[in-house]
Amino acid sequence: MSKNTVVSLIFGIVLILLGIFLLFLPGFENYMWIFLAWLPVIVMECYGVKETKGLLLPGGI
């Protein structure tokens, strides 16, 4: 499996879990700001892995 496949698989699993949590945990939407704050970082990681092999961007940048 290539790195892009693994990242896409992990990203898909995270989105599925997020949907399940939103459906079945009543108070989970109160903590959605944490996900929204980290969403740009996750997108940066995905683009970094796709464009340059072996590149992982630090989460703080």
Q: Considering DSSP H and I runs of 4 or more, what fraction of the residues is helical?
A: 55-70%
Write down the secondary-structure element order. HH
Number of E-type strands: 0
Rg estimate, integer Å: 13 Å
What is the molecular shape?
A: elongated
Strand content: under 5%
Major sheet details: none
**Count of domain modules:** 1
Please characterize this protein's 3D structure:
- The protein has 61 residues and is mainly α.
- Helices cover 69% and strands 0% of the residues.
- It has one domain.
- The protein has 2 helices and no strands.
- The chain is elongated.
Provide a brief overview of the structure:
With 61 residues, the protein is mostly helical. Helices cover 69% and strands 0% of the residues.
Blueprint of the fold:
Blueprint: H1 3-24, H2 32-51
